Every structure is written in C-alpha cells, then in structure tokens.
Amino acid sequence: MEGKKVMVVFGTRPEAIKMAPVVQALKKSAVCCEVAVTAQHREMLDQVLELFKIHPDYDLNLMQAGQTLTDITTRALDGLKEVLEKAKPDIVLVHGDTTTTFVAALAAYYAHIPIGHVEAGLRTGQKYSPFPEEMNRKLAGALADLHFAPTTTAKNNLLHEGIDELKVLVTGNTVIDALLETVKSDYTFADPSLRSLLKATEGQRMILVTTHRRENLGEPMRQIYRALADVLDHYPDTYVVFPVHKNPSVRQVVEEVLGQNSRVHLIEPMDYEPFVNLMAQSNIILTDSGGIQEEAPSLGVPVLVVRDTTERPEAVEAGTVALVGTSYEKVFEKLNRLLSDKEVYQDMAHATNPYGDGQASERIVAAMVKFLS
C-alpha cells in the first residue's frame, strides 16, 4: 500500500462534519490521505476543521459575497484541476450532494482518477427538490467508481439506476460517527446567554428550529413561522430556540413573523459542537435540514421536517421523522399533536435509528484500502 494516496474533497460544513471521521480513519490506515477544501462556505467550514483538527493540504478559498451556483462551479472546477494535477491521487473521495461534490467528481473524471462517493444513493426523484442537491448527488453518482450507501434503501436506488452491485457498499452514515464523538452528557455551553436561557427555562419544553432551503424561501417560511407562533400561544410551558441562517431572505421573514415573540429566542448560527449538544437537550426539532434527519434519531428527539419531499425516507419509515410540508395547517397540526399527545411523542422519540452504529468510517476505509490494493 506504500505510496497509495486518497484525496478527500469537501467544501461546506455538512460535508466536513460527515467526512471528518473518514479523514481521521484514513490517517490511521496504510494509505496516504490528503484533504482539499473548496471553502464553498468559509466561516462555517473553518469551525468544523478546527473542532476535528483537520488541516487541509489544499484550500481553494472560493467563497465570495453574492456567489452564484455558476460562480462556485466554474471556480471550483478550475481550482481542482490544478490540485489534482499537482497531488496525483489514486482515488478522489467526495461526499453527498453539494456543488463541490459534483465538481470534484467531474474534475477527477476529467483527470481519469477513480471516484468514491460517500452517502451515495439518496434520492427524492424530483429534479428541483432539493435544488440543486438532487442533481448534484445523481451526477456525482453517475461518475463514481465506488458507492458508499448509508442504507439499504440508498443501495436499492443505485441498483435501480443500473449501478453494479459489486461497486456498492452499505456502510451506515458517517454523521453518526461524528455525532457520537461530539455529544457529551456533561457538555457546558460557552455562550453565557445560552447558558442563562437554558437555566431560566429548566423544566420547560424546547423546540429547536432551523430553516434554510431555497425552495422554502418566502411564503413557505412565513407559513411555517406563523404556525410555530400560534402553537406557542397554546403551550405556555414551551419555547423556541432558533439559530437563524445568515441568508438575508431567511432573516427578513423570521424577524417579520417571530421577531417580537418573547418565547422565540433568535440566535446566530451555531458551531457544530454546541449545536448537536443543544439538539440533545431539545424536545422537538422543526427543520428543513437533511443532516438533522439523520442525527436526531440517535438522540431520541422527534423531528418534523418542513419539506414536501425527503431523500431520507428511512427515518420517516422508522417513525423518528415526520414529513409535514410547509403549509400553516400541517405544521400547526403536527406540532400540536406532539406537544399534546404523550404517546405519539414517545413513539417518535423511541423509534430505532436507521442510520447506523457509528462504524461507517471504518467500513469505508477498509473498502478503500481493498480497492487500492
């Protein structure tokens, strides 16, 4: 195995979180591991790199104010072409469904370098939902040589598309590896205002909220927030913590609908470590995030997903996640039921997590070593 090199490429916080345990496992293996980041998201990426002590060998530092998908795609493709020419890896490992994922796979394909795709096979079957993630993931999958599917459902999606079964390995999801390493029962939040809030609300129920999806901007978000505000009127023992995405289009609607509500605590986006520990202390999570659908089941926290589709149906089938859409009526109804019906709440909270045992990274690395040997 001497001289064999794996290049891990990512560009956003979710990718970094899910690839960090893979990088750590590769560093302990018989192969050389180098890391290239596009920094498609800069600040949010850096705090994950620091947490997991990852020092990129190549950093394209692409993020610019007002960047478009075309901007990211073209700059990343040019930058990664140069990186691959210099590094000459034996395989490129990408993750998930970001623009960086697709572009890194394309750059590797152009350079005739094999590609491994972590978290392969997730599908909604709808081209523009989520946008652009659905097609990023499919296009990366079309180029990949090894497919690391987190679940059997994801594997079956790949087989349905004609992928050779010998090239697909069900591993579990690496986000569970990262989560189990990060959540602590005795965790202390560094933010004094958050510590004070949690102390002052001890014994009350917390709804943790995150929203950022492009397809939810505007009226869908307004409906979600109105339903949330009206539910709080019915339950005086319940409050909301809402780390608000930096997108001005999100912030405008949040401030308009929830800004004056005394039981909605709007805070800045959180670093990964305090955020997952806050998840562990919450009672309900309302989100349009993909990763949270995988993480929260390991913490025993019910998740209501404010989207019309999900590429993660396993959690819905297992009962840990409910897909509720974005209409006022559906969001209000589902929140109200979870808050009022203890049996329904317990059924969701104690459902089995379908996303693995925290050993996905070890399985991926073993397969990579076998492939390279």
From TrEMBL:
Residues 27-368 form the UDP-N-acetylglucosamine 2-epimerase domain. One of its GO terms (molecular function) is UDP-N-acetylglucosamine 2-epimerase activity. Keywords: Isomerase. Its EC number is 5.1.3.14. InterPro entries: UDP_GlcNAc_Epimerase_2_dom, WecB-like. The keyword Magnesium does not apply. It is an enzyme of class 5 (isomerase). It comes from the Bacteria. Belongs to the UDP-N-acetylglucosamine 2-epimerase family. This is UDP-N-acetylglucosamine 2-epimerase (non-hydrolyzing). It comes from Desulfitobacterium dichloroeliminans (strain LMG P-21439 / DCA1). The lineage of its organism: Bacteria, Bacillati, Bacillota, Clostridia, Eubacteriales.
